[in-house]
Structure formats: C-alpha cells, structure tokens
C-alpha cells in the first residue's frame, strides 16, 4: 500500500469479524489466505467450484459450456492505482486493452481497510498522472477519499474496467497469453499483472499453537477496536501498518508492539519544515531516485526493505510512548498457549493482530517466472523469459517508491512504453 498498501469478494468476508469472540487461527488463515491487495483482479476459487463451473450437478449433465474468447492487445489484471496508471498510458497510445477487477467497485480495496486509515503521504504525492488528488496539498487523505479518487479517475479517462471479474489463471498458448476467468478466455500478446505485493497475508505456523481463547486476525481483517476482546492486544510487526494500528487500538486497550524498529523519518510529519522540505526530498529524491535497483545504494537497501519494510513515516517512537504502547522483542514462538518473545518472556494477551505482511500470491500465473524465494524475476516490471508479460506494484519493483502512489505511476509508464515498443516492432 502506498504505505499505502490490501481484493476479490473474499476480502470482504475476511473483515466481518466484529462481534465474534472465538475466532481460531485456522479460520483466520482460511479467510485471510484468499485476500488480494491494491486492486488485484484475482480470487482463489475452491476446487469444487472450478470443477463445477457452468454445470448443474442435479441435472447429471457433465458437459461444460464452450469457453467464450475475446481478443485484445493487452489484458491488465487489477484496477488499483497500478492497473489504472497502466491503463491511462495505454489509452493514450491507442492500444486495445481491458482492465479486469475482482471487486464490485473500483477502489474497494481501499474501502475495506481499517476505519481510521489515512494515506501515509500528503495529497500532493497521491495523484495519478493527468489528475491531481482533489484535496489540500498537505493533507493526508482518508482511505475512502482514495477509493473515490480511483473510481473518479477510471471514469474521467473512460478506462475499460470490468468489475466483478476474478481471474483464475494466466497461461501461454504459442506467442499469446491466455487469461481465464470463469467461462471467458482473454487472448492477448501482452498481460500486465497489476496485483501488487499485497495478496496473501503471512501468518507464522506457530500461531496455531496459541490458546484458542486468544482472538487472532491479520491486519487486513482489522477494522476498529470493537472487533477485539477485552484485555491486552499484541501487534506483531512494527512497520507502518503495525504502528498505525497500535495507535488506533491504544485508545481502548493495553497494547504491546513486537518487532524490530524499522527506523523513522526524524521530523514531525505535519510541520511546515517537514511538509515543504523533508518529505519532498525523502519521497521524490531518496525513495524515488536514489534507492533504485540501478544504484549501488538501492541494491544494498532492497533486501532490507523487502524483509523489514519502510521506515515509519507518520508515527514516531515518542508517539507510541505517549499512547502507552509497550515495545517488546519479536515473537519467537508459542509456549503454554501464549506468545513467547525473544529472551524468554511470555505475554498474557487476549488478542493478537498480525502485521506481518503479505506474500505476493501470484501462483495463478502458471508460468516459470519465479526465483527460489518465490519472487517474480523481473526488471522494472518486464518479466524475465516471458516477452509480453509484465508486473506492476511489487515491493521495490524499481525503487522504494514502487508501492507508493507516485512510484506506481512511474513504473506503469515504463511498462506501457515497453508494450508500445514491442507492438511497434511486431508491426514493423
């Protein structure tokens, strides 16, 4: 998420935890595991549903209806800031394309986030190409304002977004890619997976060993403190989302925040000096131009950011202290049904919120594009060994800013340019 970073109808189900008091980790995984982030247009379907697509089991007719085919130049998967940005550039090039979005409305990925969420960057950095964000330049938009902005952006530029379309898989047939969604196959020479890095929430295996009376949920399912049981709350993961949720929960609960401090921007985020000098330098120069895969500094920073996230942008350590949030070492495992910290301390808490990040969850791309760690082999969005296949929205796709709004816009422009070059070469 633009610090952003969290699609498919399964995400909506995963957030309906309010009022339930005995949610086990198995349920948390079952609900959270199918989630997709930042406008992704894919939702894992149950095997039974896949086998039964188009068939009425009671009729005894096992014949599936013929797949409908649609041919386009480009299929963009996901109508978040990444997919819409790609669409904007493709439209200006006169390319025939379609954007597939799993949710019912553009922007729903933002609407589903926790109630108090505001973007971590000021509005001046939150607009996409061709349409500034309609808010005071130094304000921090709410999640719903961002959602409405994306919806308005798609409408203003008449982008061909099809909502409620869940992608089952992407395969190759000869020189063309096949994007399958239910009974429809989209045939294209170019596919852009604009599903970002926020798809499958990560929850460690030892979470299943905690006492079943402890309420556990991933940050993607958190909405507000009313979901939580009375008693202490442990947040696992101390990056931006963890710190922000800790501040929200601390209004009503005792909070422990576990994990290594990722560092922070050492100025007040809402001060005149920070807004007009520090943040522009950090966001537009350091994150956008210095820390990239093309610089030695960026290549050194990339593994650290992939593992531990960005420095805190808005919340500072003193803010956490003032709110009564207690900082503790990382959670090493479970003992006697309780969280075990590095150093041997056990915490007796009633709730755990996992702010432990996401897996890319791109296994619906049925092509050999992943390295040994499961990450896509790509340079600036162009996938290695698969001409015509692109990604947008990955962590550090090109730079630290790649998962921020302004970084997504730049990465999308690069991908669209590469598609244009490839189309011209094929036509020439």
UniProtKB/TrEMBL annotation:
Keyword tags: Oxidoreductase
Matching InterPro entries: Auxin_biosynth/cation_transpt, FAD/NAD-bd_sf
Database matches in Pfam families: Pyr_redox_3
PANTHER family assigned to the protein according to its UniProt record, in alphabetical order: FLAVIN-BINDING MONOOXYGENASE-LIKE PROTEIN (AFU_ORTHOLOGUE AFUA_4G09220), FLAVIN-CONTAINING MONOOXYGENASE
Protein name: FAD-dependent oxidoreductase
């Amino acid at each position: 998420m633009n610090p952003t970073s969290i699609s498919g109808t399964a995400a909506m189900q995963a957030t309906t935890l309010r009022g339930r008091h005995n949610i086990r980790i198995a349920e948390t995984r079952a609900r959270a595991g199918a989630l997709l982030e930042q406008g992704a247009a894919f939702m894992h379907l149950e095997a039974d549903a896949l086998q039964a697509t188009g068939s009425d089991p009671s009729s005894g007719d096992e014949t599936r209806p013929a797949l409908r085919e649609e041919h386009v130049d480009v299929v963009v998967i996901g109508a978040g800031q990444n997919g819409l940005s790609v669409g904007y550039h493709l439209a200006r090039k006169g390319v025939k394309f379609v954007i597939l979005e799993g949710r019912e409305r553009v922007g729903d990925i933002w609407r589903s986030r926790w109630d108090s969420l505001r973007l971590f960057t000021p509005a001046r950095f939150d607009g996409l190409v061709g349409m500034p964000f309609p808010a005071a330049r130094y304000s921090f938009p709410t999640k719903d304002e961002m959602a409405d902005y994306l919806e308005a952006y798609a409408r203003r530029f008449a982008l061909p977004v099809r909502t409620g379309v869940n992608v089952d898989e992407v395969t190759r047939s000869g020189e063309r890619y096949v994007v399958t969604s239910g009974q429809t196959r989209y045939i294209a020479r170019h596919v852009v997976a604009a599903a970002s890095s926020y798809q499958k929430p990560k929850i460690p295996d030892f979470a299943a060993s905690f006492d079943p009376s402890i309420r556990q949920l991933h940050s993607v399912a958190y909405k507000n403190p009313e979901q939580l049981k009375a008693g202490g709350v442990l947040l696992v993961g101390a990056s931006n989302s963890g710190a922000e949720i800790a501040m929200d929960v601390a209004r009503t609960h005792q909070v422990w925040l576990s994990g290594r401090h990722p560092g922070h921007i050492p100025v007040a985020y809402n001060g005149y000096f920070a807004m007009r000098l520090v943040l522009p330098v950090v966001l537009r120069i350091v994150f956008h131009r210095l820390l990239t895969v093309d610089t030695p500094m960026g290549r050194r920073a990339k593994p650290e950011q992939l593992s531990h996230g960005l420095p805190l942008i808005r919340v500072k350590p003193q803010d956490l202290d003032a709110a009564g949030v207690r900082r503790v070492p990382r959670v090493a495992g479970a003992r006697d049904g309780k969280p075990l910290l590095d150093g041997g301390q056990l915490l007796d808490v009633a709730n755990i919120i996992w702010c432990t990040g996401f897996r890319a969850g791109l296994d619906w791309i049925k092509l050999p594009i992943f390295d040994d760690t499961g990450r896509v082999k790509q340079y600036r969005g162009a996938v290695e060994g698969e001409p015509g296949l692109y990604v947008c929205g990955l962590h550090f796709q090109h730079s630290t800013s790649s998962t921020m709004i302004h970084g997504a816009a730049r990465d999308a422009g690069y991908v669209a340019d590469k598609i244009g070059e490839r189309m011209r070469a094929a036509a020439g």
